């Protein structure tokens, strides 16, 4: 692995230089950025993924939705459609992507849209009455064609961007200096009881600009949600906390970093059998059969199939879901929260920006 990274190092430098030049062209206004007269909040990262953008978008929705008309705008990664689409109650992950579908499912009262061309997407949204007065741009930190008013940069506690390197040697999309564009940096997936000493150490390592504020968030796991795996009825059945030492779990994940959910479940159940796929994986008939066969190999009378909320969005949109119709299928919802006094300070900083614009 180390030899491969050395071999790929020149390509990483080349890729980093290309992104650096592109950013400098935007900074020098030789490439144009479009501004808008409403608050635009970007949530993104420097890495290829796995920092927890979706639950942080959901946190912002909860914070703002009672006071403002909220809309989310995403690329819609993994969808089979093109162009601008405004999510409907009948939308599927194939049409709009798994994360936008999750936003629409959990917050049906807000508008959720997808468009690879964010400028076009924003212009379209402003034409739909009632027009939004806040737009949350999901995974748009590198999308310099839009000039947002506020930038939130996420970095994983276990893999800070200062310890990473450019793709393909590492997972960075641009050099670490890109972090200077952020108004807020959130260190995600932290231990719940992160010490002040450790926080100071991380802040020193990230070396923020004087205008930047660093916050620390952690994952809150909900209770298991049981679903009826039928293509004709995707309704939630109930919430249940059945995690115990008598239960074996087939853990189905198609996300960038399944380690946190694995760590959360370890020690709570008898055994965990992982079924791991790539991020945003579209489950085929062959995949469903493999999942079913793997489940049947687990030598336990008390066993369940557990997946993530984002994976459930894709599973329930699959025409092959009926192959799992006889399995006890659950998903594990998550939210994020902030350590110590960070929550009130973060909320105030976001609300001050939105109310002031």
Describe the structure.
The structure is a single chain. This protein has 357 residues and is of the alpha/beta class. It has 2 domains: 2-68 and 133-219 and 337-356, Rossmann fold; 223-332, Rossmann fold (3-Layer(aba) Sandwich), CATH 3.40.50. Helices cover 32% and strands 22% of the residues. The strands form 2 sheets. It has a 9-stranded mixed beta sheet, sandwiched between helices. Strands 10-9-14-13-11-12 form a 6-stranded mixed beta sheet, with helices on both faces. A hairpin with an 8-residue loop joins strand 9 (224-227) and strand 10. Helix 4 (98-106) packs across helix 9 (309-315). The chain is globular, with a radius of gyration of 21 Å. It starts with a helix and ends with a helix.
Identify the notable features of this structure and list them briefly.
357 residues; alpha/beta; Rossmann fold; 2 domains; 6-stranded mixed beta sheet; 10 helices; globular
What does the oligomeric state look like here? Answer: single chain
Could you name the CATH topology of the largest domain?
A: Rossmann fold
Mean pLDDT metric: 93
Strand content: 15-25%
Q: Count of helices?
A: 10
Q: How many strand elements?
A: 15
Largest sheet: 9 strands, mixed
Examine the secondary-structure arrangement and name the CATH architecture of the largest domain.
3-Layer(aba) Sandwich
User: Span from first to last CA?
Assistant: 49 Å
* Low-confidence region ranges: none
Q: What's the shape?
A: globular
Radius of gyration: 21 Å
């Amino acid at each position: 692995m180390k030899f491969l990274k050395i071999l790929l190092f020149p390509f990483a430098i080349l890729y980093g230089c290309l992104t650096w030049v592109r950013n400098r062209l935007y900074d020098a206004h030789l490439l144009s950025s479009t501004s808008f007269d409403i608050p635009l909040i970007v949530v993104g990262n420097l890495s290829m993924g796995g920092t927890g953008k979706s639950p942080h978008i959901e946190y912002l929705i909860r914070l703002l939705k009672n006071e403002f008309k909220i809309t989310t705008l995403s690329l819609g990664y993994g969808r089979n459609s093109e162009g601008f689409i405004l999510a409907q109650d009948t939308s599927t992950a194939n049409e709009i992507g798994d994360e936008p579908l999750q936003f629409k499912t959990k917050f049906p009262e807000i508008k959720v849209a997808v468009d690879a061309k964010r400028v076009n997407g924003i212009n379209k949204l402003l034409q739909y009455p009632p027009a939004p007065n806040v737009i949350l741009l999901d995974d748009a930190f590198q999308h310099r064609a839009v000039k947002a008013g506020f930038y939130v940069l996420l970095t994983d506690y276990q893999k800070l961007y200062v310890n990473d390197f450019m793709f393909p040697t590492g997972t960075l999309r641009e050099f670490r200096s890109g972090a200077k564009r952020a108004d807020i940096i959130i260190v995600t997936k932290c231990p719940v009881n992160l010490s002040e000493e450790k926080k100071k150490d991380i802040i020193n390592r990230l070396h923020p600009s004087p205008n930047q504020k660093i916050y620390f968030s952690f994952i809150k796991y909900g209770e298991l949600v049981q679903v009826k795996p039928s293509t004709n009825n995707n309704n939630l059945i109930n919430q249940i906390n059945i995690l115990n030492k008598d239960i074996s779990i087939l853990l189905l994940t198609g996300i960038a970093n399944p380690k946190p959910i694995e760590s959360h479940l370890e020690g709570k159940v008898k055994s965990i059998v992982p079924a791991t796929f790539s991020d945003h994986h579209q489950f085929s008939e062959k995949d469903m059969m493999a999942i079913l066969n793997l489940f049947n190999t687990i030598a336990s009378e008390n066993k369940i199939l557990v997946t993530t909320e984002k994976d459930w969005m894709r599973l329930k949109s699959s025409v092959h879901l009926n192959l799992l119709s006889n399995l006890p299928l659950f998903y594990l919802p998550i939210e994020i929260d902030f350590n110590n006094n960070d929550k009130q300070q973060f909320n105030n900083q976001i609300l001050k920006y939105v109310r002031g614009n």
